[in-house]
Amino acid sequence: MRNDLNILPWHGELIERGINATAAFPIRINGKVQGVLNVYSDVPSFFQEMEINLLEEIAEDISHALDNIEARERHRIAESDAQAERAFS
Predict the structure, then answer these.
(1) What CA–CA distance (Å, rounded) separates 16 from 65?
(2) pLDDT tens digits for range 3-35
(3) 20 to 30 A from 60, CA-CA: which of 21, 36, 39, 68?
């Protein structure tokens, strides 16, 4: 974390809070990044291969769940529109 120039503006705040390692994983909906899963640790170099793999899997699971929620909502809207069209006819 302390060597990552991308978070240089926040180094002081992170150090003040005792954060020594960070990891960020994209959350996607329909393949487009819509958010980020940020995880922090007070242990320097905490995020190793095992932790990273697990957190990547979690972010993918969240993305998949959000895709399913969005698909169900689109289906619900389509069903509602079809029902309204039948009622109108």
Answers:
(1) 35
(2) 788 888 888 898 899 999 999 999 999 999 999
(3) 21
- DSSP string for residues in the chain: -TT-GGGGGGHHHHHHTT--EEEEEEEEETTEEEEEEEEEESSTT---HHHHHHHHHHHHHHHHHHHHHHHHHHHHHHHHHHHHHHHH-
23 has which bridge partners? 39
Which amino acid is it at 34?
Q
pTM, whole model, 2 decimals? 0.76
- How many helices (H) and strands (E) the chain has is answered by 2, 2
Q: What is the DSSP string of 72-86?
A: HHHHHHHHHHHHHHH
Give φ, ψ of 48 to 5 degrees.
-105, -175
